[in-house]
């Protein structure tokens, strides 16, 4: 089969690789219908997350059709049109039973690579470094899905492939951020980052009852889409201080909750951005954490900061601000299995259309160009859909 492979830092290629096979009786094989670029991929493409090996197939956000199933698969059937969350759950361990599926204790066969760093391993994820399981990813014609009954969600007939695709990752991740915010009527929520996850977090916050959502970014096409989804916008390159802008917008108090949806390769302005960029280039930190610091500083006293971006080692983390302002920080890799059915309901009711994220639609053979466009934000790119 054809697949998009990682071969080194900023070295990608579309190659012919072996088809996946059923390895366990609970596996299914999915013929990938749609898969998409994700900002989380850029962290290992750029060399800030270790653990990739030359020839690895990457990609973790996808939907498709079940074409084969192991003998222990009972609920998922060949021919089903399904969406699959990016993290792999077993639905049997303590964490899965408590809806903390990205922390599954069963699905990471390389737990020993994570334990020295994290203390405990996470669940596995498709196409996302060997410490996260070493699974082959979704930028391919076919993919093996372990625990098929736990991880394949049948797509309702009235939901399109393009809408269902983002319920694999961007939608439930954003929705989880809004859930973390414990939104009450009248609340103002600020969101950093108007990429796929940030936009879905903004829309989810409104669906969960926020009176106002303010989204912070610098790209005109992203800010324009945020406004169409019902958010107010702040172009951080056009204001002297994001923190002061948000204070003024909230009567001096600050947002009730802040959602950080940028991650370790964030952009900013001024001396802090120069410092972060220098430290990152010298490998003295992995993160340019401008957005995370701003969210902590901007949030009102006693508020909640939800962190959805991927981070590694952050210098100058303002822990004193967190303590003295009485902030609650909530973060996780997405527990998509908890939220996916609720998100389907929103799509079916017409309250949420994730397909608005798609700006480019290309064949898998153009995967290298897709990631160049996505990484460098050429041609107004927000998300590229790849069709194997």
From TrEMBL:
One of its GO terms (molecular function) is oxidoreductase activity. It comes from the Bacteria. Residues 196-263 form the Alcohol dehydrogenase-like C-terminal domain. Its cofactor is Zn(2+). Keywords: Metal-binding, Oxidoreductase, Zinc. Residues 25-156 form the Alcohol dehydrogenase-like N-terminal domain. Pfam families: ADH_N, ADH_zinc_N. The keyword Glycosyltransferase does not apply. PROSITE patterns: ADH_ZINC. Signal peptide: none annotated. InterPro entries: ADH-like_C, ADH-like_N, ADH_Zn_CS, GroES-like_sf, NAD(P)-bd_dom_sf. Belongs to the zinc-containing alcohol dehydrogenase family. This is Glutathione-dependent formaldehyde dehydrogenase. It comes from Mycobacterium noviomagense. The gene is fdh.
